[in-house]
Amino acid sequence: MRRLVIFMHVSVDGFVAGPNGEMDWINVNQEMFDLAAEQTALSDTALYGRITYEMMDSYWPTAGNKPGASRHDTEHSAWYNSVDKVVLSTTMKGTERAKTRVISENAAAEIKKLKEAPGKNILLFGSPTVVHTLLKENLVDDFWLFINPILLGSGLSLFTALRERSKLELHSSKIIAGKVLCVHYSKP
User: Fold this and answer.
1) Could you give the CA distance from residue 157 to residue 30 in angstroms, rounded to a whole number?
2) Which of 74, 115, 151, 166 could be 64's S-S partner, Cβ–Cβ 3.0 to 4.6 Å?
3) Measured between alpha carbons, how far is 110 from 159 in angstroms, rounded to an integer?
4) CA distance 184 to 146
5) How many folded domains does the chain comprise?
6) Are 4 and 127 in contact (CB under 8 A)?
């Protein structure tokens, strides 16, 4: 069975965005990009919500072709263009795009089918509302969390959709750039 892996920045108090959706507190660097590249190599499907998909699709298809593109831009652009993209959205119904499938109904059942189909991992970057949907149905297998050194106090919580206690196993932890804690947990 394929694994569903989320890659998410989070504040120390568990928020993925501030009260107005702001994410200006997120720290990124090449080491994080390298960790992301390790996971993209193990994945052949990207899963997004509509907002994140539209943001990704406006940048990644051509990012690697631009003058002065970074190694990360070149590598991630190639991955993005090669993988199947699945978008959970009720507002993109009937939208046809190459290598992109929109799921508008029965999201949990469709994601279960996707996980049972042959292939590599399914990777989700961001898309907290999709994570909420997946958590309600116990469909997330791995959590890669980048815990940023900030307390937001309010905003969009990563784990508000949990229905019950879930035990996790710690696979790795690493401090990046002396300030961001990267942890990899999975379901036992």
Assistant:
1) 26
2) 74
3) 22
4) 9
5) 1
6) no
Q: Which domain holds residue 161?
A: 4-186
CB-CB contact of 12 with 150 (8 Å): yes
User: Which pTM value belongs to this model?
Assistant: 0.92
Q: At what angle do helices 30-41 and 71-82 cross, to 10 degrees?
A: 20
Angle at 59 between CA 71 and CA 43, to 5 degrees: 65
Long-range contacts of 163-168 (CB under 8 A, 24+ apart): 163/135, 163/136, 166/138, 168/143
What are the phi and psi torsion angles at 133 (to 5°)? -60, -45
Q: At 121, list the tokens.
A: 């991992």
Distance, in Å, from the CA atom of 113 to the CA atom of 118, rounded to the nearest integer, reads 10
For 78-84, the CB contacts below 8 A with 24+ separation are 79/37, 79/40, 80/46, 80/56, 83/40, 83/43, 83/44, 83/45, 83/46, 84/44, 84/45, 84/46
pLDDT at 95: 66
* pLDDT of amino acid 94: 65
What is the domain-level CATH number for residue 82?
Answer: 3.40.430.10
Low-confidence ranges of the chain (pLDDT < 50): none
Distance separating alpha carbons of residues 167 and 188, to the nearest angstrom: 7
